Amino acid sequence: MKRVNVARVFSRLLAQNAPAAESRGAPSDLSSSGATALADRGPFASHLKSRAVLGFDGDDTFKFLQGLATNDVLQLEADEHSAKLGTPTPNQPGVVQPPIYTGILNPQGRFLFDMFLYKPVQESEKLGKGGDAPGAGKSVPQLVADVDAASFDDLIAYLKRYILRSKVNIEDLSKDLCAWQRFGGALAGSSTSETGAGNIGWAGGRDLSGTTAAEGNGNGWRWFKDPRLDALGFRGVFSSGITPPLIEADQEVDEEYYLLWRLEQGVPEGPAEIPGGEAIPLEYNMAALNAISFEKGCYVGQELIARTHYRGEIRKRLMPVNFVLENGEEMREGVARGTEIMDGETGKKVGTVITALGSRGLAMVRLEAAAKDRLKLQGCGGAFVKPIRPKWWPSQWGTVD
User: Fold this and answer.
1) Do the Cβ atoms of 44 and 251 come closer than 8 Å?
2) Hey, is 213 helix, strand or coil?
3) Tens digits of residue pLDDT in 182-228
4) What does each C-alpha distance from 200 to 132, 203, 244, 251 come to in angstroms?
5) What are phi and psi of 310, to 5 degrees?
6) Any residues with CB less than 8 A from the CB of 143 and at least 6 apart, and which?
7) Backbone phi, then psi, for 282, in 5-degree steps?
8) Which of 139, 163, 377, 391 sits 20 to 30 Å CA-CA off 341?
């Protein structure tokens, strides 16, 4: 797992001359961790260097991915899931398909990979440069996927095991395209636009065509609401080497800031935080993160997911946690992944730290123990763990005081 300079991230966030430090507003009601360093700041934007980009093409692309993905890939083909943008322009069509978030499992139903799937804009869907006939240019893949870069080779090998005679081509597009995220408490839930541009038009009205032009670029790539949670902001795939639209000079920050924002909301991403080959997706809250469809047909690993969902009881879940000292101050030192969480009264293990950044982290915690006050970090002296119940959790998932 990548090591980050925790002290540097926190000092930058708290310093007056930090990137985008003056971009402040009211803390978002969607934020789960209260008045944190990011809760009233933003918008921030990060180039996600931890992610790579794949292209899928061929007659069997949708059918192939439908048999592997936990989510319903066919909705990317359906008109009822599209978003209307207004009149087509030379850089954007009149209608687009929002992306979906999905997982890929092994036959035993354990998590292997996650991906954000986008349906790229085809040249035939946009106006020509002169504003009349549809344009003609370089063809683009049927689907584009934003995936974990560290497990990229493993993902390609896994996909090729299932292609067999399917008419599917897989291409590494990471040199040409890259993933970005716009986020922050001052941004989350504040925009009236599906992609974060706000209103563009006279007297507070909305000019759909003008907004469309502002939100996208000349190649048809654009911002979308993060398909997992509104609190996470906006996500998109854009051409490499070019700053995406809507990002001002002082808003671009290191990816560590996005990591911190995700930890505060309790959202894991990639096999480093959803352990590949081990994690049960429902324990990592992937159903509530819109990564699983319980209405679609069969896919690899579906049996365990369906059985657990309809018959089983989830006794532990991934939760955002704060690491605090005996005096109540937040820890600044890093907590190692895999550190055990113990019940201070019984001495029994009740959880495990999955990832951490300073005083913030994600931990797998037994729900019956999450409300207790005296949860201790094993081997960390007088350090304690304070679980936080995310605001986006369904009410039936229990409570945390």
Assistant:
1) yes
2) helix
3) 998 777 655 545 555 544 344 444 444 444 444 555 567 899 999 99
4) 23, 9, 18, 21
5) -90, -25
6) 55, 56, 57, 61, 62, 65, 73, 76, 117, 118, 119, 120
7) -70, -30
8) 391
**Which two tokens mark 14?**
């708290």
Mean residue pLDDT across the chain: 83
Residues in the chain: 401
pLDDT of residue 132 exceeding 90, the answer is no
In one-letter notation, the amino acid at residue 311 is R
Q: Which residues contact 109 (CB under 8 A, 6 or more apart)?
A: 280, 281, 301, 302, 303, 304, 305, 308
Q: State the Cα–Cα distance between residues 334 and 355, nearest whole angstrom.
A: 10
pLDDT, tens only, 232-242? 999 999 999 99
The position carrying tokens 């896919």 is 299
For residues 353-369, give the mean pLDDT.
94
Q: Could you tell me the CA-to-CA distances from 309 to 108, 254, 285, 312 in Å, in that order?
A: 15, 37, 11, 6
Give CA–CA dist 114/155, Å, rounded.
10
